[in-house]
Structure formats: structure tokens, C-alpha cells
Specification:
Distance between the termini: 59 Å
Radius of gyration: 21 Å
Largest sheet: none
Length: 186
């Protein structure tokens, strides 16, 4: 089990006590976890009832709360981050990285891996990256990064750009907001 106070002491030591606002946010996350409050409730308490923003003082305390609430339950921790809304993909990625580094791939729901589509990268490629990083962490001198076909990456990114642009321009076309047009016709 993780001792949140001991973890926070490590953060304070690492920052040499120069980050008072940061430490206060982390302390409030830990206090909320100790009161068994949900991550969504904590987000509301810190003023993020409309969702978590991409601001580091918002994303990290929410991610830390979700992690400390479920340090050994990958699915529960990631879902808690997503339920907060807003920049949920960023917060969920942080939580997934933290919890996953502790639990390993075995705790990631199978359907999440099976349904993953990140072409030209694959789950096999991601496993290879993880193994490469793990071996590199053991002190080997030279690590060869896994390769991806650069032409495939460019093609994927252009396709993704077109999808994003289509959705962006579609939002500019009528009907702009069905609730407003409905209200004005009454």
C-alpha cells in the first residue's frame, strides 16, 4: 500500500519546499483521499466542477487523487479521472501511466487493449517500448528505440488532421445550437 504522506514528504524534499501552492494542492488531494471522497468530489472542491483544464495545477492534483484512491486498480483509477470531465484524456493518461507502472499490463482491462487502434503503432509495439524502457532502466549503456515507418506516421497524421478539420468546420455550420434555435421560435 502507498503511504500518501510519505510520498508527499518525498515531493517536498525534491522541490526543496519552494513550491508552497503546489504542496497545498497535493496536501488537499491527500486529505480528500483520506476522507474517502471521490475524485469527482475533489475536483468540485477545487473549483473544477465544469471539468479539469489542461493547467498543470489542475491536472496533476486530480491525477494524484485518482491514483492514491485506487493505486492497484487501473480501471477504477482511470475511470475516476475520466469522470471529472474536461481535459480527461490528459488526466487519464497521467493516471494510467502512474498506476500502470505499479500494476503492469495485467491490470489493464483486456477489451481496452483489444479495442486500441493507434496505427501504425500496435499493442505489440507498445509492449516492445515498455520492455526497452525497463531494460534501459537496469543500467544498460545503449538502448535501441523501437522503429515505426515514418511514411505511415505522416499518412496517419494527415488523416487525423483532416478528421479534426472536418469536425471543426462542421461545428460552424447550421444548426449552431438546437436549444437556442428552439427557444427563439417560441
Amino acid at each position: 500500500m502507498i503511504d500518501p504522506r510519505c510520498w508527499l514528504d518525498g515531493v517536498i524534499d525534491a522541490t526543496k519546499g519552494d513550491c508552497d501552492e503546489w504542496i497545498e494542492l497535493l496536501q488537499s488531494a491527500i486529505a480528500s483521499v483520506e476522507r474517502n471522497e471521490s475524485t469527482v468530489d475533489f475536483a468540485r472542491q477545487v473549483g473544477l466542477e465544469r471539468g479539469v483544464t489542461g493547467y498543470v495545477y489542475h491536472t496533476v492534483p486530480i491525477a494524484i487523487h485518482a491514483w492514491l484512491s485506487s493505486p492497484d486498480d487501473y480501471r477504477k483509477a482511470v475511470v475516476a479521472a475520466i469522470e471529472c470531465g474536461g481535459d480527461a484524456d490528459t488526466v487519464a493518461a497521467i493516471v494510467g501511466g502512474i498506476v500502470g507502472s505499479r500494476t503492469g499490463e495485467k491490470e489493464i482491462p483486456g477489451n481496452w487493449l483489444n479495442d486500441l487502434w493507434e496505427w501504425p503503432r500496435s499493442v505489440k509495439w507498445m509492449r516492445h517500448v515498455g520492455q526497452t524502457v525497463a531494460v534501459g532502466g537496469e543500467g544498460q549503456h545503449r538502448i535501441q528505440a523501437p522503429k515505426v515507418n515514418p511514411v505511415s506516421v505522416v499518412f496517419r497524421n494527415v488523416l487525423f488532421l483532416l478528421v479534426v478539420l472536418f469536425h471543426g468546420f462542421r461545428r460552424l455550420a447550421p444548426p449552431y445550437d438546437r436549444t437556442l434555435s428552439h427557444q427563439s421560435s417560441n
